[in-house]
Amino acid sequence: MALFGFIGAGNMGFALLKACYSTFGKNELVYFDASAQKCQETESQLGIPAEDSNISVAKKCKYLVLAVKPQFMPEVLDEIKDVITNQIIISIAAGISIDSIREKLGFPAKIVRAMPNTPALIFKGITGISYSSGSFSDEEKEIIGRFFSSFGRYEVFDEKLMNAVTCASGSSPAYVYMFIEALADSVVDLGIPRDKAYILAAQTVLGAAAMVLETGEHPGALKDKVCSPGGTTIAAVKALEEHGFRNAIMKATEACFNRAEKLTLKK
Ligand SMILES: NC(=O)C1=CN([C@@H]2O[C@H](COP(=O)(O)OP(=O)(O)OC[C@H]3O[C@@H](n4cnc5c(N)ncnc54)[C@H](O)[C@@H]3O)[C@@H](O)[C@H]2O)C=CC1
Ligand SMILES: O=C(O)[C@@H]1CCC=N1
């Protein structure tokens, strides 16, 4: 019997498997992916052979991580529902509510709904989590906490905020990469070599993010300290405002949230 079982070893499933491997060890992990290639890749990287089915994974673990796309959740839940007894389900699927999972399973299993992000692959993720009703023991909460800490930080939210969390944790790395790409392209245009452009842009994002987290100062105050009167930065800030920079981010969040709301499992 292993502590953790994974159904799905794609982008996120593999990242979480890898972190779990480092924290809990290979004897505490079982997994299966419908793609034989994913199973082979995971075995070659972690040295753990895949199980032969989702059922086998579900039967052999206490904490069952569902890491398939939201569209595949109904078929996976149908497949495993007869072997779920006291396992705790950890779902990372965008938009899929705790109630809709319980409805598919046919009973009120203990569920943790979570929204991690891809920096989990290098143990620098941020995950929003939400506990279902049902009493989680202190030991279960401790193991769940260690699991989510194994690939970065985590924060607990009321489930009604999980689609909003998705906009700021799960999806937002994509826009940060777009920002880095655009900033790098713009300085390549000014003659900076491309490799150095990515270093300048990415290290700036890393450093600015660390300033927010480590100083506790308001992001606006930190921005003001960069903007010398009549200087270069305020000229750039003015151009960003003229082009709707902040509004573009807010519109992105609105679109992300609306999509998450639409993904909820149909009965
Ligand atoms: N990619 C991301 O940045 C994030 C993704 N998520 C969530 O994680 C989940 C997985 O997303 P990704 O890893 O990006 O997708 P992915 O497509 O990379 O991985 C999903 C894996 O599930 C496997 N799979 C499909 N049907 C299956 C079945 N019936 N049984 C077993 N395995 C099956 C696929 O072969 C694939 O390897 C999604 O629900 C997504 O909403 C959450 C946070 C961030
Ligand atoms: O784009 C998606 O639907 C998934 C969920 C959050 C990040 N990737």
TrEMBL record:
InterPro entries: 6-PGluconate_DH-like_C_sf, NAD(P)-bd_dom_sf, P5C_Rdtase_cat_N, P5CR-like_CS, P5CR_dimer, Pyrroline-COOH_reductase. Pathway: Amino-acid biosynthesis; L-proline biosynthesis; L-proline from L-glutamate 5-semialdehyde: step 1/1. NADP(+) binds at residues 7-12, 67-70. GO terms for biological process: L-proline biosynthetic process. Gene3D superfamilies: NAD(P)-binding Rossmann-like Domain (3.40.50.720), ProC C-terminal domain-like (1.10.3730.10). GO terms for molecular function: pyrroline-5-carboxylate reductase activity. Its EC number is 1.5.1.2. The keyword Nucleotide-binding does not apply. GO terms for cellular component: cytoplasm. It is found in: Cytoplasm. NADPH binds at residue 54. Transmembrane segments: none annotated. Keywords: Amino-acid biosynthesis, Cytoplasm, NADP, Oxidoreductase, Proline biosynthesis. Its main location: cytoplasm. Residues 4-95 form the Pyrroline-5-carboxylate reductase catalytic N-terminal domain. Residues 159-263 form the Pyrroline-5-carboxylate reductase dimerisation domain. Catalyzes the reduction of 1-pyrroline-5-carboxylate (PCA) to L-proline. NCBIfam families: proC. Belongs to the pyrroline-5-carboxylate reductase family. This is Pyrroline-5-carboxylate reductase. It comes from Herbinix hemicellulosilytica.
